[in-house]
Amino acid sequence: MTQPLPHVVIVGGGFAGLWAARALRTAPVRITLLDRGNHHLFQPLLYQVATAGLSAPDIAAPLRQILRRQENVEVRMATVSRIDADARQVEIEDATGGQRLDFDYLMLASGVTHDYFGNEQWAAHAPGLKTLDDALDLRRKLLLAFERAEAETDPDERDAWLSFAIIGGGPTGVELAGTLSEIARHTLSGEFRNIDPARARVRLVEAGPRVLSSFPDDLSRKARAQLEKLGVEVHTGVPVEEITAEGYRRGEEFVRARTVVWAAGVAASPLAQCLGVPLDRAGRVKVQPDLSVPGHPCIFVAGDLAAIDRADGRPVPGVAPAAKQMGRHVARTILARLDGREGTHFRYRDYGNLATIGRMAAVVDLGAWRFSGMLAWWFWLLAHLFFLVGFRNRIVVLLNWSVAYWTHQRAARIILGGDDRSDTK
Amino acid sequence: MTQPLPHVVIVGGGFAGLWAARALRTAPVRITLLDRGNHHLFQPLLYQVATAGLSAPDIAAPLRQILRRQENVEVRMATVSRIDADARQVEIEDATGGQRLDFDYLMLASGVTHDYFGNEQWAAHAPGLKTLDDALDLRRKLLLAFERAEAETDPDERDAWLSFAIIGGGPTGVELAGTLSEIARHTLSGEFRNIDPARARVRLVEAGPRVLSSFPDDLSRKARAQLEKLGVEVHTGVPVEEITAEGYRRGEEFVRARTVVWAAGVAASPLAQCLGVPLDRAGRVKVQPDLSVPGHPCIFVAGDLAAIDRADGRPVPGVAPAAKQMGRHVARTILARLDGREGTHFRYRDYGNLATIGRMAAVVDLGAWRFSGMLAWWFWLLAHLFFLVGFRNRIVVLLNWSVAYWTHQRAARIILGGDDRSDTK
What number of H helices and E strands is found in chain A? Predict the structure, then answer.
């Protein structure tokens, strides 16, 4: 009888989880990868599903398919309800009921969700964008707003349906605002008989002093200028204090907008609280330099859920490259431990920071080299195509983008979930 | 002051409605095209969305986009709640409320939905396939069944989750059964650790004596042989008498099957009843030879909702070419009336009958020329690509099919609507 292989449980099939599992492909371990859904999602392009440029399957691939040749992995579609760090057990739930899994190593990479800073009642009026289902709901909401405006006979109501607000000037907010403005001004041009979609107002509202605050000042300014050129009204410096079905209040002003999107705050997956260790303000786990959890050297946290600083004191950003690096680092640490060695400290390699804004508009910060506009947009586009998982997905996305570029059309302007339209009321 | 243009109201943006609207593009009329959804659907490929081969937007295009250059059309996303044939009014409802529209000509092309022959309680256990939302629900149900089987520890339950039944041996049932068998035997191969998906049983149940009964006898037999070669168990001659969450009863036998799909009956859109004219057993309108409604020469019915016989007494089939021909014929009749002429009788031009079964398996009946197998499959494939609306859609579908052909993979194996998995219980 040989001894059973050490069991590595990975929670979350995002960039951190998937890259960790892959990095352990030749390791003498058995791996269980747990995810609520059945797919790995290429989150950087999620806003394009929401804005009808891509289909959901274009940016996602089944985890089982990606990992089917890796025989030491078992993929399970389940939610994790509890973690018992001392007993080294996770409690999972799926359609067959609940179950406890013992683990020798645990990597928690369940990510973040949107946060309304204590104003959970805003969620009903200003949905966020984290999952494919969020993206399809948002697509539906955006497309139905124009339908509703077309059907309205009252001019004030019509204007309210043609008024869109994106709350939060980070990368997601900027992408959504720029793309939505393009849709209104170009894609829908000539399709309506009672409204001119180009009259739609798209407001991007940021509480801080500038958009894309993770970028240097000059690129923030360029991003703002590019947004304004695309027709977006950018409002910075004053936070939103109230969101209702009618619009939002910002300082003294109440702005009517039937469609408000939340792209402002993130909160960590509540699972982090099970660990009983210090969390940062957003609920992320303050990990040790090797990404393990204080007091539990066999439990690691990676991806957006991990709070860790770089050598210069700035935090490691919640972006895909950081998540992949963390996932691989945890895998290396587990391999080292299995060999009786100590793991090393995680060091984030910053390859640069990209954000797209809209057609031919983007900003790129590669440290020494910063640029914006058309060149930055091509750079963003090629980088994202390159990193997209799956050969087919790359070709389909490239094709959809090419058609969108030449025709201003968007491939996925299909309203789904359509039998009950009561939510447009 | 010129006289207002005659108002043509078209209900339904399917093949009949869209082709009628297009055929009236130079006519001195104003057209209102009403549809519940925002898109035209290429229904012949709907089963491929359900079986995860294509994305929803691949087989649909926004009606507004298709018709945006045709200035005499207004597209409205609304449901029709009532038709007052004598007053020449339709009552519509959208998110802004209800409204009455006067018409000079009306074409009703609201299609058919599935029918459970009075057993509406079966709908919960055996969903049908008519809309994109149906297709996404079915995709989810099929993919979750394998997930559920993988998670089950009880062998009987596991078998029940690996047992699939398609009720109805028409083209949709045959397509679904053949494709599902391919998914189980090839696509999912090697992806699960606790089950062998190839052990899944796919049963196709037809009450009549043969599958594809609209085809000649020899092609029916060939279709059955091809299905069996793909691994489908074909059961004919005995109707299903009961469907529950556990399976179905057929004669003396209760077959356990957690996933049952309804592809058996169609019933006409209930709007037909508003007309107060004779309907056939399925609720379709028995139209006059010019497709008008008895007693209402300015009201026409086209597409699947119209019941009309060919010269040889056989009914015109409910297929896309017939719907297009009817739509164009109604347009021509309206043009003739505007010119003070009488319309002609509708004559269905039968270009043949195709049905696909699965990989390299199909049957084609072109009257004098009948064939099956690989050649028929290529013929089906090219014909469907050719008729798909939109250049982009054709390329994406071709690409998805090519990848599926070479790799056995399917592009859209993404479970959506995933936060609540209670429906798998």
Answer: 10, 25
Q: Please tell me the predicted confidence (pLDDT) of residue B420.
A: 41
CATH C-level class of A7-111+269-338: alpha beta
pLDDT at B376: 94
Q: Which residues are within 8 A (CB) of B204 and not within 5 positions of it... i.e. 6 or more apart?
A: B165, B166, B169, B173, B174, B177, B211, B227, B232, B233, B234, B235
ipTM of the complex: 0.90
Flag whether pLDDT at B406 surpasses 80. no
Contacts with B68 from chain A: Cβ below 8 Å: 190-191
- The verdict on whether B157 is a catalytic residue reads no
Tell me which architecture the domain covering A119-265 has in CATH.
3-Layer(bba) Sandwich (3.50)
Please name the residue of chain B whose CA is at the shortest distance from the CA of residue A188: B65
Angle at the Cα of A266 from the Cα atoms of A261 and A271, rounded to 5 degrees:
130
pLDDT over 90 (residue A39): yes
Interface with chain B: mutation pick from A421, A422, A423, A424, highest number of B CBs within 10 Å: A421
Q: Where in chain A is the domain with CATH 3.50.50.100?
A: 119-265
Residue A423 in this model has a pLDDT that exceeds 70: no
Q: Is the pLDDT confidence value at B424 over 90?
A: no
Tokens of B27: 């006519």
Quick one: B126 exposed, middle or buried, by C-beta within 10 A (0-12, 13-18, 19+)? buried
Which residue spans of chain A are classified as CATH 3.50.50.60?
7-111+269-338
CA–CA separation, B60 vs A71, rounded Å? Answer: 39
Average pLDDT of span B98-127: 94
| pLDDT at position A114 | 86
Q: Which of B414, B419, B421, B422 best tests the A interface by mutation, with the highest count of A CBs <10 A?
A: B414
pLDDT at B178 over 80: yes
Catalytic choice (A74, A93, A175, A252): A175
How many beta carbons lie within 10 A of that of residue A99, not counting itself? 14
Predicted TM-score (pTM) of the model is: 0.92
Question: CATH fold of B116-266, please?
Answer: FAD/NAD(P)-binding domain (3.50.50)
Whole-angstrom Cα Rg for chain B:
22
